[in-house]
Each structure stands twice: as C-alpha cells, then as structure tokens.
Amino acid sequence: MSRLQFTRLALQDLKNIGDYIAKDNVTAAHNFVGRLKEKCNLLAESPGIGRKRDELFPNVRSVTEGNYVIFYRQSGDAIEVIRVVHGKRDLGKLKFEDK
Fold it and tell me: 62: left (phi > 0), else alpha (psi -120 to 50), else beta?
C-alpha cells in the first residue's frame, strides 16, 4: 500500500467542500468529506483505478465520488491527492499547482 499525501490545494478543497455543505447540514458535511477521504485511501491501495488525465496535467489520474472529482498522481512511494473539485467546474481552467 502506498502512503497517502494531500497537497495544500487538496486540503483546502476538502475544507471548502465541508464548509459549503455544513451551511445546511453539519452531519452531512462531516459524512461526505469522510467519504471523499475513504476514496482517497482506496487510491493508496489501488492507484491504477483512476482514469488518466494527461490532457489536464501530466501524470494525473482521476476518480469520482458523488459529484466530485479527485485528482491524484503517483509520487515516489506515495499517492498524492492534488485536487478535489465538483465535476461541473471547468476542469480545463483548474489549477493543479500551488504557485
């Protein structure tokens, strides 16, 4: 099993998702962010399950959870979660690096 790491952007995405859902339902926010994190743990066990997304950023793969897309890449012996965004976002304009 690979180690699981999150970029600063991915951690901010998770916080923003939780904050948005919590406006209506704190329990639902906690549960959904938990589901997203469980999906990320699955990536550490089976990193090849995602779809290649080289058209967006080199060596990036993605999987979905609900209406959200988790972007990640293999980084040495770790799986690095890069972003977690709603699938209706314009993915072509998505920033993958915090620069």
Answer: beta
